[in-house]
Amino acid sequence: MTASEQTKTAIVFPGMGPSGFSEVGRFLTLDPFARKRLAEADDALGYSVFDRLRDSEDDYSEATQIAFLVNSMASADRAEQEHGLVPDLCVGPSFGQKAAAAYVGSLPFAEVVRLTAELARCELAYFTEEYRDAVTHTFVRTPQEKLTEILAGLGERGEWYDYSGYLDDGFFMVSLREKELDGFKKAISQAGGYSMYTMVPAVHAPAFAELRRRAAEEILPKYDILDPKLPVVTDQDGTIVTTADALRTMLLDTFDLPIHWPKVVDTLKGAGVSKMYITGPDNLFHRLDRTKSNFEVVTVGPGKRSRPARKR
Q: Per the database record, which ranges form the Malonyl-CoA-[acyl-carrier-protein] transacylase small domain (predicted)?
């Protein structure tokens, strides 16, 4: 591997996690990069995202999703201006795919804003009709063999579950029925694991093929997706995307395929990436052992002071 290959940089747009209005709203109001992006989002949608965000009580409402997108793009703007960021590859795990699509030029930012709003409405309609009691639970420190036993118990009782994410060693996301959640959390605890948070509605589950179909047939055809100007690494299997068709497939895969962060890390390492900028409100990916042990990580986003974390 040459010296130039060893110093490649990746930009990562994080997935969404629970967040409060106070921190998000403060960033949207005070940060100059966020204010600019917010104005663009308001123009694209024809309403005040901030006003709807303030009135929202849902962690994953349309306005909350748009605000997260705005803050992620604003953080990338800051990373470029203040850090001189010129990345070689782009990654957008989970919801971060939307910001990634805008950043690499596959869709203009205004269109990504409208796409995000339309997909949020599509998801709301789907989960009002189907899998109304489905949740996705995130947990850590759980050995694979123990988790396999726990899930086998669910299967033996005829209960549905799907893997929704492989984040790190012992770190998973599993979708299941809400009525099974308390028992599942207890079993995780007994196995030595630690429950983090639960997402409603559920995400990234193979059972949601119908949601993928709706997005593919009713929404994405409205948008003219272009070849990315920067290679994008898919969060499902670490494939490097360089065409519009592959990027469109990636956007659809997020509905019914689990995240696999270890495969993303393997691809980035194989491409010679040694430094990673995580741009946006991230409470997860920069903390993962697999991230910290393989890259010099710089976090840029709400609640952060653009500080680097040393590679271990």
A: 139-199
CA diameter of the chain: 55
Query: In whole angstroms, what is the distance from residue 127 CA to residue 204 CA?
Result: 13
Q: What phi, psi does 297 have (nearest 5°)?
A: -110, 130
| pTM, two decimal places | 0.93
**Comparing C-alpha atoms, which of 219, 230, 280 is closest to residue 70?**
280
Strand boundaries in the chain, DSSP class E: 8-12, 89-91, 134-140, 161-168, 171-177, 194-199, 232-233, 240-241, 259-260, 273-279, 296-300, 308-309
Q: Say whether the peptide bond before residue 201 is cis (omega within 30 degrees of 0).
A: yes
* 304 neighbors 26 (Cβ within 8 angstroms): no
Task: Tokens 């996690």: give the residue.
Answer: 17
φ/ψ of 273, rounded to 5, equals -75, 130
**What 3-state DSSP class applies to 168?**
strand
Strand-pair partners of 177: 134
- Measured CA to CA in angstroms, residue 112 lies from 69, 277, 301 at distances of 9, 21, 20
Q: Which two tokens stand for residue 198?
A: 């639960």
Break the chain down into helix, strand, coil percent, rounded to 5: 50, 20, 30
Whether the CB-CB separation of 178 and 201 falls below 8 Å is answered with no
- Torsion sign over Cα 247, 253, 254, 257: negative
Give the list of residues 6+ apart from residue 274 with CB closer than 8 angstroms, or none: 6, 7, 8, 9, 295, 296, 311
Amino acid residing at 22: S
In this prediction, residue 302 carries a pLDDT of 83
pLDDT tens for 115-142 read 999 999 999 999 999 999 999 999 999 9
Q: What are phi and psi of 90, to 5 degrees?
A: -130, 140
Distances in Å between the Cα of 113 and the Cα atoms of 73, 103, 228 are: 11, 12, 17
Strands 273-279 and 296-300: parallel
